[in-house]
Amino acid sequence: MGKFILKRILLSIVILFCVMLIIYTLMHSLPTNYIDTMAQQLAQRPGSNKSAAEWLADLNAKYGMDKGILGGFFTWLKSAVVGDFGESWVHNVPPTEKFADVIGISFILGAVSMFFEIIIAIPLGILAAKRQYGAVDYTVTVVALVGISMPTFFVATLLKLIFGVKLGWFEITGLTSARYYDTLTRFGQIMNQAWHLVLPAITIIVISIGGLMRYTRTNMLEVLNADYIRTARAKGLPEKKVINYHAFRNTLIPVVTILGGSLPSLFSGALITEQLFSIPGIGYTAYQSMIVGDIPFTMFYLSFMAILTLLGNLIMDVLYAVVDPRVRLS
What we know:
The chain has 330 residues and is an all-alpha fold. The chain is built from 15 helices and no strands. The radius of gyration is 25 Å and the shape is globular.
């Protein structure tokens, strides 16, 4: 196990290097020169003692933009490996500091959404497979297809219209109630923030459960038709044990594939959902930085996303061996 993990980590480092080189190349080749724009803004700030040309030279030297793609990439990489990603042009603080301020909200939103996604989608997928071609199966199939087909912005807009505008149960934007948030107790403030996360969480759950339900149902049907399941039933084992122990255990491999790939979403933020509901998480912050050309924060966020993806794949491979003894890491 240790040897396998070490090999995968070394391979992940190589992949991460290549990914970051591609990302830096794209940032370097942007049609709009955001560094020129930033230099102009810095020169116009009160108390600035440098001209726009001087700021431009400093920024180019700091981010290696005056050394070509490869030279600039290694200049950026040398600082990035020690945690120095520069200073965010939008937030005026290091990207890591801004990340620490907003990651908690995204993690809570992602963890709650994933929890309900699992406890809703997997049992429904199993139930649909057990009652194939029945009313439950058709209902689950329709719900899954609808969830897969609907885009995030449509689900979010529909929820805001019904529960925010028509019924007035929720505020449709922001993380707090601006009118009375400061007058609440600490517990009241926590509950107020939790209430604002309900609609974003439902949005993520609705668009996520469809794929997991279909995946669970399809693989459960395949397992239920296997020879060893028929043998278990022929031996007189209770149907509950056949389903919950023999069949479900062997359905976990493809389910782990999805869940392992979903782990990065706990920390990467739901960019579209957070933007639609104005939730100040890491996804919302990254989007705001990208649209104005905040290269330092964008590079940090994309690096973080790449690391999370590679980590999710490593965890997924290790879990294969945990849930299925037939899989050997060698």
